[in-house]
Each structure stands twice: as structure tokens, then as C-alpha cells.
Amino acid sequence: MRMRSKPETEVAQNWQFISTCIVSGVSVQARLLGQFTSQDLTAIQTTIVMGGQTRELVMGSAYLPYDPIVPPPSKEMVSLIQYCSTSKLPLIIGCDADLHHPCWGSRDSNERCNALREYLVTTDLIILNKGTKPRFVAAGRQTVIDITLASCDSIICD
User: Fold this and answer.
1) pTM here?
2) Which SS3 state, helix, strand or coil, does residue 95 take?
3) What pLDDT is recorded for position 2?
4) pLDDT score recorded for residue 90
5) Can you list the domains of the chain with their CATH numbers?
């Protein structure tokens, strides 16, 4: 997403490293949700046609640091999820999570995933990952550590 206004640019200037972003085409009218955006979370709101109706959709890109002081999810991510839930806005979040668990296709699990899983059961978010195809491949390692989350109203649920 191109930064167009001064407030959005100022948000990015306050961080030394930015871990997330969302890139959209020129035809997509996306609005940065600065109140939920941080070094490790980018959130936008856009209008889409879904089920024959024009609707608002919130999309997020989240990085869940490997050694955070506070276990995942971050307070910004929780705030975004709560905002979408109370505003009845569909939400899709792609997470660079470095979390291992069979729920999203990993063959093993790690302790960091427990806090996130415990939080997710209190929300209407579902894990969209299917299968066990590795999404991270480096130095001879292959793992499924990234997850995509969506509110049930953002997809067609059975």
C-alpha cells in the first residue's frame, strides 16, 4: 500500500525495523488502520464485493516475534481482533508466526503456540491452513510455522 498522507508516514518513521506490510494494487482503495498498526502489525480496511454485496473487509499482516516479552498474540493484534468483532467487520490476518502445532499442519509443536491457541478459542477466528506442505524452507529445514486466520464472516463457513 502506498503511503499517501502525513499521519501514515509518521507512524512508520517511529520504528527502527518494520516487520510487516500489505501491498495492494492501484485499483484497490485501502485505508491504513493506524490505531492498530505497529512495528509488527499492519492493518488495512477496504471495500470488496462478497456474496453479491459490497462489504468492508479488514486485512492484517502480523509478525509474532520468536522471543517476545509477552507471548502471542500482541496487544495490537488483540485490539484489531476485538475492533473487528465489535464492529462486525470481516477480518483476515496472515501471520509470520514461527509457531509449531499440528492444528495448522506442523508435525511438531512448541510452547509459544499454547498462548495463541488459548486466545483463539475465545474469538470467532478460524485457522485457514490446510495440509502439511511446508511454508518455511531454509538451511535444510522445512516447517509449517505461518498461519492465516479469518473471522467466519470473511469466508463461507460450512
Assistant:
1) 0.77
2) strand
3) 39
4) 94
5) 6-10+18-154 (3.60.10.10)
